Amino acid sequence: MKAFKVLISFLIVIFANSYSSAQKIGVVDTNYILSKLPQYTEAQSRLDAQIKTWEEQLQKMQSEYETKKTAFENEKVLLVGDQLKLKETEVKNLEKNIQKFIAEKFSGEGEINKFRANLAKPFQDQIWNAIKTIVDKNTLGIVLDKSNNISVIFLDKKYDYTDKVLDLLLKTPSKEDKSKDNKSETKTKNKK
Length: 192
Fold this sequence. Notes:
Elements: H1 2-20, E1 25-28, H2 30-36, H3 38-75, H4 81-106, H5 111-138, E2 142-145, H6 162-171, H7 175-191
Helix pairs in contact: 2-6, 3-4, 3-5, 5-6
């Protein structure tokens, strides 16, 4: 009986220790947060406009290539010597230019991905800082981002800190907003 009481006491101590050292978990949705930040959506719109411009350029290049290639194929029989080589070189150069343009703009190392990375970096830093503040305030041990392919089957709203992070971000002026406010204050002081 004494051994049983000792065993029960031991289990209670272990359970209490494991319960007290359990980590609080929180979940956020960074994609949702980004979609609600006006500065991010504005920057994303500018990027989308640039991408559309590049896509239009690419379509024009491809159209010109197809036209010249078809013309070359139709005239090939009539061309001789230098004329044939000149037209063939022209078509090959257009094709190379298209491939180069695609690589420069749309590849993994292209300008679109660089712009996206530069666009997202400051906002990701802001979100990280806001999450860090929420983590410290709520003594969270783990924070998961449900927008990064984490399958969340059920989430009690009390563990979802997305709105708290968003509120913190929308209440805290960004560095750009602070510099605009400082400039407007300077202009107001100078007018007086």
